[in-house]
Design brief:
Belongs to the G-protein coupled receptor 1 family. This protein is mainly alpha-helical. Helix content is 75%, strand content 4%. 34% of the residues are buried.
Length: 322
């Protein structure tokens, strides 16, 4: 009987529960989640369209911003539609390979977004601290290499996670108490030693992100020192305004992500549904707010959006010929 209870198998599907204990509230939770997801997709899509179509936005800063918008779309789309399917259609099953793919993309987007924010901080450092050398330092060749390095680093850091999950034997249950698959949550279902999963899955990405945070902090300390040495009040205000939106986005990304990770790792007294709710908010709230912050704080983007909107309205209101 004991042998039967601990039969080792490789599950064809996992069962995602959504938010355990809050099943009665799934419908109500799905409404703001859906609205935030739609806002994130529409906002980031508009941002990408404006950056592509407005020639005055063809600069390294906006190239990195478009990468950030693409990352936000992928992060939300990897997780939220499945969560909504669980809440609305009770579609709890997810294939094992699809689950592993979801794990991969969630973690790649997290590490990638951190690297993009570092690249944006470097862009602002060059623009403010050595403005005369900006075009010489950040050529399109250099920007392209930075973009390729971001993608390559994110892929190489997270790719081993696939093998760490696929090597595990599973037993007893294939039920995942979450609304989407994440590395440690799936690994804990295994009947094998998952020490390497815990240390690699938690330590390696976090160490890389902490390095990014340290470099961003160094960049902004140098930026602030340069700003306060500028001769005029207007010059200081203009320099700070160009960094304001980026600082807001940095805080919106790192504060909830570190809080979510630390509570998941060390907050054993926090109820499970709180962990899951925070995880769902993390994958949709920053992607929703990022384009809003940049749209409000960046004059060039506001003008680009207004220009696009005016063109569309003019086209729609134009009288048909004849």
């Amino acid at each position: 009987m004991t042998h039967t209870n601990f039969t080792i198998f490789h599950p064809a599907v996992f069962v995602l529960l959504g938010i355990p204990g809050w099943e009665a509230y799934h419908i109500w939770l799905s409404i703001p989640l859906c609205l935030m997801y739609i806002t994130a997709i529409v906002g980031n899509s508009i941002l990408i369209m404006v950056i592509i179509t407005e020639r005055n936005l063809h600069e390294p800063m906006y190239f990195f911003l478009s990468m950030l918008a693409i990352t936000d779309i992928l992060l939300s789309t990897t997780t939220v539609p499945k969560a909504l399917a669980i809440f609305w259609l009770h579609a709890h099953d997810i294939a094992f390979d699809a689950c592993v793919t979801q794990v991969f993309f969630v973690h790649v987007m997290f590490v990638g977004e951190s690297a993009i924010l570092l690249a944006m901080a470097f862009d602002r450092f060059v623009a403010i601290c050595v403005p005369l050398h900006y075009t010489a330092v950040l050529t399109w060749r250099v920007v392209g290499r930075i973009g390729l390095a971001i993608v390559t680093r994110s892929f190489c850091i997270i790719f081993p996670v696939i093998f760490l999950l696929k090597r595990l034997p599973f037993c007893r249950t294939n039920i995942v108490p979450h609304s989407y698959c994440e590395h440690i949550g799936v690994a804990r279902l295994a009947c094998a030693d998952i020490t390497i999963n815990i240390w690699y899955g938690f330590s390696v990405p976090i160490v890389m992100v902490i390095v990014d945070v340290i470099l961003i902090a160094v960049s902004y300390s140098l930026i602030l020192r340069a700003v306060f040495h500028l001769p005029s009040q207007d010059a200081r205000h203009k320099a700070l305004s160009t960094c304001g939106s980026h600082l807001c986005v940095i805080l919106m990304f790192y504060v909830p992500s570190f809080f979510t990770l630390l509570t998941h790792r060390f907050g054993h007294n926090i109820p499970r549904h709180v962990h899951i709710l925070l995880a769902n908010l993390y994958v949709v709230v920053p992607p929703m707010l990022n384009p809003i912050v940049y749209g409000v704080k960046t004059k060039q983007i506001r003008e680009g959006v207004a220009h696009r909107f005016f063109d569309i309205r003019t086209w729609c209101c134009a009288s048909p010929p004849g």
